[in-house]
């Protein structure tokens, strides 16, 4: 079966080729040349380990996964474990992006053939190869932090006939020798915009990056650079792995003293709304994380701040009773979250694409609908 042709038809229907250069780029870049013979797919075993798809054992399943429009291919876990290890349960640390989001990002980037592009996160080199088709190898600088991945991606690009400037280094620092850039695109999620990206951007440049908060992941942020200030809004969803230095630390060491009180609202109303609302709440509370634990009558939510000094534990069962909320430290994190949720409700429950960021030398400023309507946040 021609899975590549099927994928092309799906992408066509989805509007993935809105930018005219993307259709020929898809046709010219053989995705299979950038995919290892073994990678972790969607399947797991009874122990929760991700199963490996092996080209040598089942080439049809391997190829079907490679061209699956909606699935990413996991190529590394725990910053160094490769699929050669076999079934494994760990944290994803590198992947080849699903075709749907890869092409949506390239559409949002608004690339012209003469643009100079900085690409953060080379990995396999597939996205870099597509960009080479759009702007030419001479206009692309691609950076990969992991030395093993950097070597692999550079070799894949060379073998496929592409010759961008390929750097092993910290993408958050950009790359001065080939600056300024008309476009900056990241394939890893940040929670703050590096000042170097802005300083190395040409006037009018676009910066496009997945953007996570500690509370919720998944925004795609598009900024325009004008006179040293980058401003723009979230233009869609993009659930990507963290840039390594931006990962949550999740260190919890609150003060021993605890306080108890009732909740003013059903936790399910605030915490059971799905990723879009979670992401929006994270914009209001950029240094707060949360997780669920337990089930049924023992179901709880735990919130903690990045410093690890304040914690709130909220019981779902009989949440209105005294003692349903237990908090440690100086901050009342549950009250902060309830206030953020109320602010969102009072604003008309705006979709996360109504929010944006302005990044200037004083920091990052969250706004709703217009840059002048600053509401706090990261």
Describe this structure as you would to a colleague:
The chain is of the alpha+beta class. The chain is built from 10 helices and 19 strands. The protein has helices at 3-14, 22-28, 59-66, 99-109, 126-135, 147-159, 195-199, 267-271, 275-284, 333-346, and strands spanning 38-44, 50-54, 73-77, 92-96, 117-120, 140-144, 165-168, 181-186, 201-211, 219-226, 229-237, 258-261, 288-293, 300-305, 311-315, 325-328, 355-360, 363-368, 374-376. The strands form 4 sheets. The chain has a 10-stranded mixed β-sheet, with helices on both faces. A 5-stranded antiparallel β-sheet has the order 12-16-15-14-13, with no helix packed on it. It has a two-stranded antiparallel sheet with strand order 1-2. The longest helix has 14 residues, at 333-346. The radius of gyration is 22 Å and the shape is globular. The chain starts with a helix and ends with a strand.
The radius of gyration computed from the alpha-carbon positions, rounded to a whole number of angstroms, is 22 Å
In which range does the helix fraction lie? 25-40%
Helix count, DSSP H or I runs of 4 or more residues:
10
- Mean pLDDT, to the nearest integer, reads 94
Major sheet attributes:
10 strands, mixed
Q: What is the molecular shape?
A: globular
Number of strands: 19
Pattern of helices and strands: HHEEHEEHEHEHEEHEEEEHHEEEEHEEE
| Major β-sheet strand ordering | 7-6-5-8-9-10-11-17-18-19
Strand content: 25-35%
| Terminus-to-terminus distance | 48 Å
Based on secondary structure, the structural category is alpha+beta
The stretches of 5 or more residues where confidence is low (pLDDT under 50) are none
